[in-house]
Amino acid sequence: MSTVKEKVNATNKEAQLKQSSYLEAISLALWEELERDDRVFLIGEDIGVYGGAFKVTEGFLDHFGEDRIIDAPLEETGFIGAAIGAALTGLRPVVEIQYADFISCGWDQIVNVAAKMHYRSFEPVPIVIRSPSGAGLRAGPFHSQSPEAWFSHVPGLKVVVPGTPYDAKGLLKSAIRDDNPVIFFEHKYLYRRLKEDLPDEDYTIPIGKADVKRFGEDISLITYGAMLQKSLEAADRLISEGISMEIIDLRTIYPLDIETIIDSVKKTSKAMIVHEDIRTLGIGSEVAANIADAAFEYLDGPIKRVTAPDIPVPFSPILEDAFLPQTDDIVHAATELFNY
Amino acid sequence: MSTVKEKVNATNKEAQLKQSSYLEAISLALWEELERDDRVFLIGEDIGVYGGAFKVTEGFLDHFGEDRIIDAPLEETGFIGAAIGAALTGLRPVVEIQYADFISCGWDQIVNVAAKMHYRSFEPVPIVIRSPSGAGLRAGPFHSQSPEAWFSHVPGLKVVVPGTPYDAKGLLKSAIRDDNPVIFFEHKYLYRRLKEDLPDEDYTIPIGKADVKRFGEDISLITYGAMLQKSLEAADRLISEGISMEIIDLRTIYPLDIETIIDSVKKTSKAMIVHEDIRTLGIGSEVAANIADAAFEYLDGPIKRVTAPDIPVPFSPILEDAFLPQTDDIVHAATELFNY
Amino acid sequence: MRVNKKIKIELYYYMRLGRAIEERLESLYRQGRMPSAIYLGRGQEAITVGAAMALEDGDTIATTHRDVIAMLPRGMDPKMIFAQHYGKVTSPTKGRGEATYLGDMSKGIFTTVSMLPDFYPVSAGAALSFKLQKMPNVALAFSGDGATSRGDFHEALNFASVLQLPAVFVVENNHFAYSTPNSKEMKVDQISTRAIAYDMEGSTIDGNDVLTVYENIKKAVDKARGGKGPTLIEAVTMRMKGHSGHDPMNYVPEELLEKWRKKDPIDNYQRRLKKEGTLTKEEIVRVSEEIEKTVEDAVAFAEESPFPREEDLVLDVYR
Amino acid sequence: MRVNKKIKIELYYYMRLGRAIEERLESLYRQGRMPSAIYLGRGQEAITVGAAMALEDGDTIATTHRDVIAMLPRGMDPKMIFAQHYGKVTSPTKGRGEATYLGDMSKGIFTTVSMLPDFYPVSAGAALSFKLQKMPNVALAFSGDGATSRGDFHEALNFASVLQLPAVFVVENNHFAYSTPNSKEMKVDQISTRAIAYDMEGSTIDGNDVLTVYENIKKAVDKARGGKGPTLIEAVTMRMKGHSGHDPMNYVPEELLEKWRKKDPIDNYQRRLKKEGTLTKEEIVRVSEEIEKTVEDAVAFAEESPFPREEDLVLDVYR
Lengths: 340, 340, 319, 319
Ligand SMILES: Cc1ncc(C[n+]2csc(CCOP(=O)(O)OP(=O)(O)O)c2C)c(N)n1
Ligand SMILES: Cc1ncc(C[n+]2csc(CCOP(=O)(O)OP(=O)(O)O)c2C)c(N)n1
Ligand SMILES: [Mg+2]
Ligand SMILES: [Mg+2]
Prior knowledge:
The complex is a heterotetramer, with two copies of chain A and two copies of chain C. By secondary structure, chain A is α/β, with parallel strands linked by helices. Chain A has twelve helices and 14 strands. Chain A has two domains: 4-196, Thiamin diphosphate (ThDP)-binding fold, Pyr/PP domains (Rossmann fold, 3-Layer(aba) Sandwich); 211-338, Rossmann fold, CATH 3.40.50.920.
């Protein structure tokens, strides 16, 4: 079984390119961190022999062995709790939750044990919980959720949702090296659809820093995850209408990089937020609240949100497409805001 | 053992008053609904023989018997799940979670089973989960949490946090009569501290309607739960400085009564939100986001939030008092906003 | 227990129908005609059908991802199963739910969720409901072997045992949880052993013999109905297909599958029924034809049904 | 197993010290001197101390709300316990945590949480950590009887058993979970029966005899250390005080308490040690004096310690 690393390297050599998919970027980050630090180990359902439901860890077991790549029994509370215990006693576990929807089954251990440990005991809990989230794959209400906002209401956690392969690799490395519990959602729609050149050398992306993915003058569009691509698409289309969009990719959902957001809004005077998560108490509400406080004087229009509606993620293609914010929706909202 | 109802009635008769505490109001609502509808039953830890950790159900077991007042084993997932099953087969369970902090142990059943049932199956899930939440009693990080915002990010649930005895009774009755899952948080600090006259006759308060607890001209202050009292106190003090506060008590946290909020802000042009929950993705952020969108043109100042900081609830009195928003903080923020 | 002829034939019919439905689901999936994932219970028909047949009207049943054919004896129309996989508005979820997560409370079938085994507690709650309402009904729930590792399994069994509820918990031990074999999921040899932790009756039965399944589960159902409390039944079988449509199941040794192919619950049962004269060659042909037609009709229904309307997207979140 | 004199005396000393600390906590609580709730383990000292004494340096221990005195043999200073209840900055949580939720990882003591029994899985994780790091250590965790109803219990035991981890799970069966008696919590007569569900060794022992506790837990600890896997030990005792300081425990019949008072673990042990000559009257007096001084000093320390500073409120949420 050839490993992701070998495959990517082989592909790269042939093509004289270093293009990696979002999924490969994540695999590479895991692989390299496992090589770098022998305190790192992976645990989760079907990650060993099977290589993971999405094949993120294909070939890992052969290379790293059973002590580093642990196939866990079907018990999210049990193995998340165990990972916390391992983290408190010197190791650096990386937990895979097969689908982000199932993270709810380990909820209590995350929010009550992991998150509140350092504040009370000053002990680090260097654990990463990574999981494929998000919709778009016709997977219905229980394999499509975007649970990131829940965890962004839990002090003590850090929450990361990368939107590009480059960021995914650099942020996952930072997450693994971080001494705090990090919840790391990988948008499963991007896994094999998004490719990018990755540098050869080891690099990290700081947790807590947003990234301006496109500079613009007229509107600050704040987004993250799979909506980054749609936002960029929308920005391309809007150019022809004379609207210059600044696209901020949050990357880290909690703690928020409020400074970058506010600086941008001070420049553009208009703000909109785009996310795939539902509207009420999605990250957009926190972003909007910050802008409405700290950048009020600069605002030249209402703060708009383009989000999914407040419903479970429906399965049927027509419904799912209607559920998800589309490029058209973004273009429409931006045009309206521009003309305000 | 005399029941709450008898006790309250006796007291009332003597004093020719109908004053009930927040806790008694809740007991009465439960009692009356148990009398009214024999599909209603209560289940939870120590609610029968012991009458509940806070004695909300004292005397209930004797009167209603073991089939209506069920002492459950210590397993939140088990008895919340069971309540859902009972609700799907014709009953109307009211679950008590001993402290709101422990609701995390039944999280998955609530957010994945109860909340998403009707959208997919059109079957009602008439279950109420009630629990004492909130800080102020020196009870530390695990007996003081305000988990309401998490549940307000779960379409399919309704989330209620009453701020007065009158509202508590009327809203709990509505919750029990509602065909949807309702999460009902009772602020434990108010249990025995807040008293109010209650009408003799059966009444309900609609879920989803905010209540303007005080009319004013200068600032719309949106709040709920235990912060209502501090906000009213602040408003009293601010009057002498010539600042007229309009106090909106949300009562229902989800779905939000956006209309009442927006109407108020259109009148006052200034908005602030006060809640005991932490800042990031507390209800305040959703309220602010709505105002910053729908009432932007009317706004005459930044939207301010007075909340707890993003930390676990600390135990030590000095810390807990510093954690909780105080009347002074509200007065200070309102004055600043007024002078903006 | 003597199983009468009518029931014997029904067991046969529903197993055949169930398999035909799943075979069709698989081919439609491979052709890319349905947006849904598929979870096939091939090889496990004796358990799903045997258990479902042991119930009466008014009882409830809670399935998992792999047990959709258990709905057939409870009255679920095959049309609904295809409409669901197609995401059509004519399905019980009106296209909101995927795959096997459909149900119909009027037939006592819960619309379950993916989280395993979340409907063990819910099913215990239905049993509580029957007890409190003094209704003579029973709540039956399925779980896989892997899902017995989860806390919900423990809490449900404990709850049902403490309150002595009319519940039957069936575990389909098909030896794998996705790619994870029993040995990595638990240390006990028999899952029924776990009943001891709840002072509950537990037994392990041959899950590939539909009469054994029917009789044993019927006994447990009758016991529950008689107020004698819950039972845990482990039915041993083998998952003959990948976890879901895209899983080539490379982790399962071919010999193991070969061994279990010989134990095919339908082939063996058909042979037996023929041998004992309950079923003739002609009847088999007739059943085959009927089933083919039923499946054809169901697929046609699903194909021809409309998709849900975008405008209805946000309806029904609340009652 | 022969328990040597030094250990015998230490067991005695720590039980006495533990009880003295709890008695003092109770009186301070009744006087309203401390902001914290109290959870007293009176009557259960043989278990907490016996178990803690069975561990070695480098092992970990995870307590519950009722087990704070188990920290004493692991090196926790009594000053810390009082400072914690007072909410002082000198406590291990710097006043952020309440009651018995303190710890010290340098001594292998987890800072646990209220949710029961959340540290069963965490403790299994420490055991996994020892195994992966090839460290010769053992992770021991306490649970109450009631908490065995929760899924975390099940998942932890299953996890530890599948992975054959060096873990010891101790259940203190004190017959009540708050007001809920065993009979409403479980149907098994012995909680150790639950070990069967994990093919784990399980035993039920007299929780009021400290030598029995020490010896049995030591055996399980040694077994774990030797790579022979986890054990579940149920130690039977009685909760002699209310669940917490404000619980008058009206639901417990006086006769039951009377019966258990006669089995007091300290009185009986002291009598035995005196009888066998391990302990003289003078030594008892000396121990009493030492303990009184220790407790006095600890209370004084707590009283005199400063509260945390408001300015530090938001520090340390992150590393
Ligand atoms: C709580 C939870 N975690 C993970 C999953 C993902 N998942 C779906 S099926 C499956 C394996 C289930 O195995 P088993 O219980 O043996 O049932 P089987 O599929 O063999 O019928 C897993 C891990 C899930 N559905 N629920
Ligand atoms: C998950 C959870 N639910 C509820 C509680 C509230 N609570 C605290 S102690 C207790 C009883 C615990 O009983 P048991 O496990 O027997 O321990 P004991 O107090 O008898 O030592 C309860 C219900 C809790 N701490 N955790
Ligand atoms: Mg299986
Ligand atoms: Mg107990």
